[in-house]
Amino acid sequence: MPAPVIVARDLVKKYQDFAAVDGISFEVASGESFGLLGPNGAGKSTTMRMVGAVSTRTSGELGILGLDPDVHGPEIRSQLGVVPQSDNLDTELRVRENLLVYGRYFGLPRKLVAQRADELLAFAQLEGKEKARVDALSGGMKRRLTIARALINDPRILLLDEPTTGLDPQARHILWDRLFRLKEQGTTLLLTTHYMDEAEQLCDRLVVVDKGTIMAEGSPAELIRAHSTREVLEVRFGSDHNAEVGARLARAQGADGHRVEVLPDRVLIYSDNGEAELVKITEAGLRPVTSLVRRSSLEDVFLRLTGRSLVE
Amino acid sequence: MTGATEQDFAPSSIRPRPVRSLYAGNARAVMLRGWRATASTNWLVVVSGLFEPIFYLLAMGIGLGTLVGAVTLSNGQEVSYPAYIAPALLAVAAMNGAIYDSTWNVFFKMQFAKLYEGMLSTSLGPLDVALGEILLALLRGALYAVGFQLVMQVLGLNLSWWALLALPAVLLIAFGFASAGMAVTSYMKSFQQMDWINFIMLPMFLFSATFYPLSVYPQWLQYVIQAMPLWHGVELVRGLTTGDVNWGLLWHVLYYAVMIVVGLVVTTKRLRALFLD
Ligand SMILES: Nc1ncnc2c1ncn2[C@@H]1O[C@H](COP(=O)(O)OP(=O)(O)OP(=O)(O)O)[C@@H](O)[C@H]1O
Ligand SMILES: [Mg+2]
Q1: Cβ–Cβ gap A88/B114 under 8 Å
Q2: Residues A74, B123: C-beta atoms closer than 8 Å
Q3: What span, in angstroms and rounded, lies between the C-alpha atoms of A49 and A61?
Q4: Strand A259-262's sheet: what is its strand order?
Q5: Which CATH number among 2.40.128, 3.30.70, 2.60.40, 3.30.450 corresponds to the domain A229-295?
Q6: Which of A146-150, A294-298, B261-265 is predicted with the least confidence, judged by mean pLDDT?
Q7: Which residues surround ligand 2, an ion (CB under 5 A)?
Q8: Strand pairing class (A80-83; A18-29)
Q9: Which strand ranges, in their side-by-side order, compose the sheet holding A59-64?
Q10: Strand, helix or coil at A219?
C-alpha cells in the first residue's frame, strides 16, 4: 500500500467546552478515495477544515503529505484543492476569471493558469459559460465551477465537503462522473456526505462519524457485511398502526433472531431472505399497505450503529 | 518523503509562528483580483468619487471664499481662502478613497461574499490578504488625490514647489486610512456598527481644521481634534502646498506610519482569528 497522505490520530477540535470532533483517527493512502459519512453536526466539516489547514486542532496528531498543518499551513494548502460545503465563488468576477484569479492566489504563472482554466472549463462542462456571471449559473454548474477552481493548482489531494448536497439527481450524476474521472487519474479524494449512495459510488473506504467520533470503518461492502444483513424487508402499515404492529413484529421476528427497526413511517426487518419474511408476515394475518425487499445499504449500517436515520 | 519532512519539521517548530505562515509574498494577486472586480462591475462608482472634493472646493472655496477673504497661516503668511481649504480637501480626497474600499467593501466581502475564506484556503496568508486589500484601497485614495491636485494646479492653488511632496504625503494618508479602516471593519458584525464609522467620519471631515483654523475651538476640543488622524493629514498637506514647511511636519508623518503598522498588524491578526481558527 502506498504511503498515507493524510494521517489523523486522536484528532480533537473543541469550541469552548464542546468537542465538535472528539478523537478521530484515520489514514488515507495516496490515490485513495476516502469518505466521512455522518448526519448533520457529526463533525465532518470541522474535520475537513483541520485537514485543509484552515482550522487548528485542539489536540491529537495530524499530518498532511507528511507536514504538520500548524507549522506548514501554506505549503499544505498549496497542494490541496478545496470544495467547501457552501460555494464561495467570487461573485464579482465572471466564470473564467474565477479560475484565473484563484490560480494567481497560488502564485502560479499567468500563462499556465490560463491554459489550465480552459482545460478545466471543458472538464467541468462549462464551455460557452466563460463570460457568464457566477450568479447566473445553476446550482450544479456552480458546484462544477467550484470543483474546477479547486483543481487549478493541480492538487495532490481534493477535499470535497458534501459535493452534491442540494443538487437534483441528474446534476449529481454529472458530478459523480467528473469525480470518478479524477479518481481514475489518481487524485486522492477526501469527501464528506450524508448520502449513502454517494458514499457507495465514490468511496473506496469510509468512516461512519457521529457526534465527533468514529462508529465504524471499512469499505462500503465490508461495512454492510459486518453490520447488516444481505436484504431488508420494508413494510408500511399506515401511520396509525405502524407503532403497534411494529412492536408485535419486533417480538415475533426477534424470536426468529431477526433484527427489527420500527421507524415512524415504516418497519424494517433485516434478513438474508426478505421474501421469506414477507410470506411469514402475511401468513400471520398482517396486511402491509406496501412492502419492499431491497439490498442493505449504508443507511442500514448507520441505523444499526447509532439507532438513528442518516437523513432526517 | 517522511525523512526529509521530519527534518524540516524540527527547526521550524522551535520558532513559534513562522512569518511564512502569515505571508506568502503574494499580495499582488489580491490586488489584481480587486482590480478585475472593480473593472468589471463598478468602475463608474469609483470615478464618481473623484468629483466630491472638487464640488466642495468650488462651492466653499470659490463661493464662500469671496465672503471670507484671506487666511493667515501660523508662519504669518496670508493665503486666499481656496488655497487654504484646497490642501485639506486633498487630504480628505485621499481619506475618502481609502475608506470606501477598506470599510464597506471589506465588510461586504467578510460577511457575505466569503471572499477571504476562499483566499485563505489557498497558499495566501492573512498578511497577503490584508496588504493586498489595503494597497488597493490606497490606490483608490491616490487616484482621487492625484485628480484633485491636478485641479488645484489648474486653479493656481499649489503655492510652492513643496507641493510636489504632497503626492507622497497623500499616499501616506491613504495608506494610513486604508490600514486603520480595514482593521476597524474586521471587528464589525452588523450594518448598525458600520454606521458608526460614518458617524465618526463626518464630524472629523468638518472639524479637522478643514475649513477654518483650529484656534476657533476651546483648548480641550483642540486636543481632541489633534488626536484624530485627519487633522494630521490636513496639517501635513497644507504645510506642503502652501510652502509653510518645518520639521514639525515629520510628527504627522510619524502619526501615519504608526497608523499603517498598527492597522496592518491588527487586520492580519483578525483575519487569522476569523478564517484560520
Ligand atoms: N465555529 C464554531 N463554533 C462553535 N461551534 C461550532 C463551530 N463550527 C462547528 N461547530 C459545531 O460543531 C459541530 C459539528 O459541526 P460540523 O459543521 O463539523 O458538522 P457537519 O458534520 O459538517 O454537519 P453538516 O452535515 O450539517 O454539515 C456542530 O454541533 C456545530 O454546531
Ligand atoms: Mg458540514
Answers
A1: yes
A2: yes
A3: 15
A4: A259-262, A267-271, A231-236, A290-295
A5: 3.30.70
A6: A294-298
A7: A 44-45, 85
A8: unpaired
A9: A18-29, A4-15, A59-64
A10: coil
Per-residue pLDDT tens for A58-101?
999 999 999 999 989 999 999 999 999 999 999 999 999 999 99
Q: Show which of residues 46-65 on chain A sit within 8 Å of chain B, judged by CB atoms.
A: 52, 54-56, 65
Provide the ipTM. 0.86
Q: What grid cell was written down for A227?
A: 453490520
Q: How many residues does chain A have?
A: 312
Alpha-carbon span B160 to B163, nearest angstrom: 6
Give alpha helix (H) positions in B23-104: 27-41, 43-48, 51-56, 65-68, 81-100
* Pairing relationship of beta strands A267-271 and A231-236 according to DSSP bridges: antiparallel
Residues of A in contact with B30 (CB under 8 A): 105
User: How far apart, in whole angstroms, are the C-alpha atoms of residue B66 and residue B69?
Assistant: 6
Mean predicted confidence (pLDDT) in B82-98: 94
Q: What is the pLDDT of residue B127?
A: 94
**Inter-residue contact A19 to A33 (CB < 8 Å):** no
Residue type, A113: V
Q: Which residues, at least 6 apart from A3, have a Cβ–Cβ distance to it below 8 Å?
A: A29, A30, B1, B2
Query: Dihedral (C-alpha) A99, A105, A109, A115: value to the nearest 10 degrees?
Result: -10
Q: Where in chain A is the domain with CATH 3.30.70?
A: 229-295
Q: By alpha-carbon position, which residue is closest to atom 27 of ligand 1?
A: A40
With 80 as the cut, is the pLDDT of residue B273 above it?
yes
B29 and A91 in contact by Cβ < 8 A?
A: no
Residue range(s) in chain A whose domain bears CATH number 3.40.50.300? 6-224
Helix, strand, or coil (residue A157): strand
Predicted pLDDT of residue A98: 97
Assess whether pLDDT exceeds 60 at residue B6.
Answer: no
One-letter amino acid at B92 equals: V
Residue whose grid cell is 463598478: B42
Task: State the amino acid at position A289 in one-letter form.
Answer: V
Q: Which fold has domain A6-224?
A: Rossmann fold (3.40.50)
Please check the confidence at residue B8 and state whether its pLDDT lies above 70: no
CA atoms of A234 and A211, how far apart (whole Å): 28
Residue in this structure with the C-alpha cell 461512519, named with its chain if needed: A208
Question: Per residue in A195-206, pLDDT tens?
Answer: 888 888 899 999
> Which three-class secondary structure state does DSSP give residue A31?
coil
Closest ligand to Cα A15: 1
> What is the grid cell recorded at A240?
396509525
Q: Is the CB of A142 under 6 A from ligand 1?
A: no
- Three cell numbers at A92? 464579482
Cβ proximity of B170 and B140 under 8 Å? no
- pLDDT tens profile B137-179: 999 889 999 999 999 999 999 999 999 999 999 999 999 999 9
